[in-house]
Amino acid sequence: MPMYHAMGEVPRKRHTQFRAPDGKLYVEEVFGLEGFDGPESILYHRHSPARIKHAQPFEPRPIQEWVPREWAHRHLRLKDFPEGGDAVSGRQPFLYNNDITMWYVRPTDEQVRFYRNGMGDEIIFVHEGEGVLHTMFGTITYGPGDYLIIPRGTIYRFELAQGSTQRHLVLETPGHFTIPKDYRNSFGQLMEHAPYYHRDFRTPETLEYHGEEAGGSHELLLKVNHGFQVYELDYHPFDVIGWDGCNYPYAFNIWDFEPKAGRLHQPPPAHLTFRGPGFVVCSFMPRMLDWDKDAVVVPYHHSNLDSEEVLYYFNGNFASRRGIDLSSVTLHPSGLPHGPQPGLDEATLGKHWTDEAAVMVDTFRPLKLAAAAEAWDDPSYKYSWSAGAEGSDDGPMTVE
Ligand SMILES: [Fe+2]
Prior knowledge:
With 400 residues, the chain is mainly β. Helices cover 1% and strands 36% of the residues. Mean pLDDT is 93; it is low at 391-397.
């Protein structure tokens, strides 16, 4: 949860009369979590946010599971993911459980419909692409490396910068993405040891108020009950004259994450960035490697006894690691040990720096593969630790 923020006009006291210049009362909406006990914002609308002109038929869209023949380490080549669709409709799920779903999209089309996720929070990690995220809380200009954190219920629309190639990794949880309490004091402020500070989090820039426009026709795509519901509106959904509170969309650029290094290996919790129910999101960024003269700078082998590790590689030289490329995803599932591939431990002794960057999602309950993942599966990855597999002298350190 970010800190308190306010934009536009709000009345001096909440729950009091607040009128537009024409004398009409603005419609107050408390936008909050946990039944009035969790983070909330208060918005002032020109129209009732419950008003709809027409409800189209509901379309169920359950995720189809792919059950591969073997339970093994897995590599998905998202490098070849096809472009197409808009930032919402073009999404394809590839991994999911009851706590989190991971999607990928390379949008090319302008998003015509406004979108509201009624099922969960979203984090959109922008690997490539520039543009403007328009939301009912205001605009957020985005670019490569941005995490866009969008609370459930936020109405938004992506505007893609002309000519920009886009790659978005989308995380969705029915819970709430939080800035971990590990980094905050009892007052909520980020502490000195946190890998980021409040000024690194970008709040909405410009409030877009369309409340005075009469009539019109707009479509709102609502995600609910594992499907899509389209509402036709006779008003613009960005009709908020002002808002304040602690529940709103914001951005954080991964290059503003301050990585931690140590004399000996720092495990993934050192890279913790966001937390949610049943998972963590970590940022592996370019950093010094372990400086003890006897250090083994690649991670030790370890067993994921009760968690699944997903890595998305987005920067650095991965060419020499067998098959791994930019936009690759690896899944190291529970129950299996994993670690550096053969030869890496010896070959990297004495190295002092890694320029590789990756986003990691660790889940504490098993993940399922979605049907779309089969098309990008690299069946050879599970054998990459085997006898005869080639070593590498320049492989990634981020084989957590
Ligand atoms: Fe690991």
